[in-house]
Each structure stands twice: as C-alpha cells, then as structure tokens.
Amino acid sequence: MSRRRRHGLELAAGCTVAIAALFLGTGIPAVADPGEPSPRPRREVPPEMLASMQRDLGLTADEARARISNEYRAGAAEPGLRKTLGGAYAGAWVSGNTAELTVATTDAEQSATITAGGAKAAVVKHSLNALTEAKRALDSAAAERPPTAEAASAWYVDVKTNSVVVQSARPDEAAAFVAASGADRQVVRVVESPERPGPLYDLRGGEAYYINGAARCSIGFSVAQGDRNGFVTAGHCGDPGDTTTGSNRVAQGTFQGSSFPGNDYAWVSANADWAPRPWVVGPEGSDVTVDGSQEAPVGSSVCRSGSTTGWHCGTIQQHDTSVQYPQGTVSGVTRTNVCAEPGDSGGAFISGSEAQGVTSGGSGNCTVGGTTYYQPVNPVLTAYGLTLTTG
Questions:
Q1: Which of 39, 118, 279, 318 could be 22's S-S partner, Cβ–Cβ 3.0 to 4.6 Å?
Q2: Domains plus CATH for the chain?
C-alpha cells in the first residue's frame, strides 16, 4: 500500500495553496489536495494486466509496474492541479514509458507553480473551458442536424494539441459542419481520416444469426483464424459464400467453410463490427465462460444453448455416433438426451467450462423431451485451423 503525505506550496501572493505534487519514478508519493477526497488505496495490479501491457506496449515488467504506479499518481494529482490553476487550466496528460505528467495553462506565470508540483508545464493559447465550449457547439449542431459519417466520423477535445479535432473523410463537408455549428473556428481543426466507427456487437454461443437474410441458426463458439475472427456452427446451416446477419439483423459475416453431410460443421468469419467473446448464453441470459475444449466422457453432464429454446441440460449418451439424416449420413457425432428444436442448430454444447460441440440435429422437442446430436468441436477447429476463443 502506498503512503501519502501532505504539504503546501507557498505562492508569490503570500497565500498558501495546496497542490498535488508528482514525483515520477523517484519513489516519492504524490500528495493530494486537502480540498479533495483522499485517493482510494491502490490495489495490486493483476499479473494478466502486466503481461498484456508488456505484450502490447513493448514494456518490461518493471516498466509496466512503474507506469501503472505513475499513472495512478497522475490521476490523483490532476484534480488539485485543475483547481489551483482555475480558468487558465488547459488540460493534463501523461506520456512516455514513465507516464510523465504534463499540465497545460494559458497563463505563463503559472509554469513555476506547475513545475514546483513535479509536473512539466505547457503554455498554450486556449483554456480547457474554451475547448469544451467549442466541442459542445459541435454536439448541439449534430443533435439538430447529424453530419454524415464521411463528413465527420468523430470529434473530440485534444488537450495535447490544444484544439478540438474533427475527423473527416471529406474535409470540405467537415468545414461546413463546423461553420454551421457556430463553434470558434480558431479552436477547431479538421483532420482527414478514413476512420468509420461503428458499434461492436458480441459473438456469444447460443445466440441467433440469419443466413442470407432468411433461415435462422445459432452460434456455436467464437474462434479465430489468424487475424480473422468468427464462430463455428453447424454445416447444414449454410454453404461457403452465404452471408449472415446477427440476431439484431446487422450484417455479420460470411461462411468460409462448410461440411454436410458426412460431417456437420462450418465456420463463419465475422466483420469488424462483431467482437468474439469466450461466452455461451447461459440461464436467464447469463454468460458462461469457455475455458477450453477438453472432451467430456460418456455419462458426463452437458448443457446446450440455442436461439429457439435457450439453455437445457442432460447427459452424454454415446460418442462416435453415425446418424442417418434425409440428406445423408453424418458420422462422428455425439448422442445426448438434451432436448432441442429447429433454430437451435449450430448452438453450443458445453460441459462445465469446456466446449464440447455444435448442435447438429435430433428428434423430439423441449416439451416432451428428445434426443439431440452434436458435432464435436475439436474436429472443426482442426479442419479449418481455428483457435477457440477462451476466457
């Protein structure tokens, strides 16, 4: 647990004003503004987060720990600095592997106060209040008359450049949007960008998807093939090239491979709007996390998630079953006493937290009970060189 001490910095005017001091990389803790609540004790950083920072930010383990610590201190310091600098405050940010704090001000005379507090000072033209006012003008204009995504895909206060940035694929249209908003044009700058943001939807086992806008099946498990993400499902649900939409009818992906009869498996690559999740839709819409795909032995409990009947459980009766469908023989499937109904096809079978397979077919229903077969998942992963998304 970090320790904190308090002290004040005496200003030229003779009054004593408390300011949050930041000493980066020295082991000296930050001090909080006595007018602000004391920061909460900092929890230990999970090892998984440190490992991810090392991987994605190119840091050593010690650098990752130091950065987290300094970022925490910077966050604790910022409220005091903002309060002390008042209307001249123009934002704050950290940079570099050591997360060094920079504080911006429109008043050059405040630079000494900032550096005395352990941060770097940046003297800029526009206050944060001025930037925020311009951003609000853009927000109001967009609420009344939304720009196209090509004209303005995003806009934001950028304290590092002391401006409000408007991203646009068509700068001329963006300039017209800015002019119509009434925002201070000296504060706003347009940056050409091809970015087209869109909402991200989750891929979860058991949820519905539609094939070519018509027939419905269920997602099995999220998977990856190289830099492509998607999901596995039943082969009888679609052929290579068929397109899919999600349960929300938003464009989702394309069948990349499919085998039926003989086997009953397929995989769909999803577009960038869909995020693979290591989850299966469980009871009452809860998320059941997938940890692996270890095959469960005969007699094991197993549960199925599908878009028609939801979550149902039973036991594994036999592995390596051959079943005769009207379209032909499917071999190597597993027989269970779990019920299922049309539309559940392709949905996830899971035992504990281990993925077992995707729903193939069967008989009966969830009113009287029945027999359901699933295509084991491991042969699907092997056939297409897929990696299961796990938690």
A1: 118
A2: 8-123 (3.30.300.50), 128-192 (3.30.300.50), 200-391 (2.40.10.10)
